Amino acid sequence: MASKTANLYARIEPDLKEQAESILAALGVPASNAITMFYRQIVLHRGLPFDVTLPANMPVNIAQLSADEINAELEKGYQDMLSGKARAADDVFADIRKEYNI
User: What pTM was computed for the model?
Assistant: First the structure.
């Protein structure tokens, strides 16, 4: 096995780093090992080991919408509610509490 002598320096958002390292700690995986695993997967895949694509349904940024576009989005939500595609917020939060034992 090759010795680990190369250093990697990367700037990352502190909150993202904290969240990721918290998950890694729960898994018992040091950040340096996770980075090594990621690099090994890049080599094995000869590229990123996951698809890099934009999601099909991007969230709507209301600050960039015109009044007509806002009304159209509100109408979509209203139609979803009428057709039963929407759920009451209380029901959604109850499911979240149940799943996470809150």
Answer: 0.53
